[in-house]
Amino acid sequence: MISCTNQGTSNNLELKSKSENQELSQVRAIGTRIGETPPDFTIVSTEGKGIRLKELADEKKPVIIYFMATWCPYCAEDYETLSGFYKNYEENITFISISLDLSEDLLELKEYKNKYPELKSMIFAPGQNQILIDYGITKTTSKYAIAKNGTIVFRSIGVADEKQWRELLDYII
């Protein structure tokens, strides 16, 4: 029992709570930590297609969510690295690049994507304020890997070299 005393009086306020435990297998937490189900969102790709994260998870295909900006030199470095080998993974992974710069529109992102023809199967989309809030995004190169079961298995910020990208992509397949 927790008791609180109001200053100047002798009255105690008793705080009671009831808790119920559930089996862990019955609980699916939504959040941005490893093991959690990520927040759902719907985006419009540079090709004009509406894409919902939950529907991708229902397909039981791993997903990479990568937060970027067209002006970010580190994002360009990641895309250059991925350009060399991503074609070997594109059938088995959905890769979504979302701009954290809310001023970047579909046309600007489409032109940027054209700089990386080897990444044509990647989905590029303008960001949305709520997505950035839900994922706590404040930096480019933020990435989340979502396994076939729909839970987050990896998250990081920063440029990755070819070995790191291959290890991540191999791991989630």
Topology:
Blueprint: E1 2-5, E2 12-15, E3 42-44, E4 50-52, H1 53-58, E5 63-68, H2 73-83, E6 94-99, H3 106-113, E7 123-125, H4 129-135, E8 142-146, E9 152-157, H5 162-172
Parallel strand pairs: 5-6, 6-7
Antiparallel strand pairs: 1-2, 3-4, 5-8, 8-9
Give the distance, in angstroms, between the N- and C-terminal Cα atoms. Answer: 49 Å
Low-confidence stretches: 1-28
Please tally the β strands and state the result.
9
Average pLDDT, to the nearest integer?
86
Portion in beta strands:
15-25%
CATH top level class name? Alpha Beta
| Major sheet characteristics | 5 strands, mixed
**SSE series:** EEEEHEHEHEHEEH
Helix content: 10-25%
Structure class: alpha/beta
* Spatial sequence of strands, sheet with the most strands: 7-6-5-8-9
CATH H-level homologous superfamily name: Glutaredoxin
Bulk shape: globular
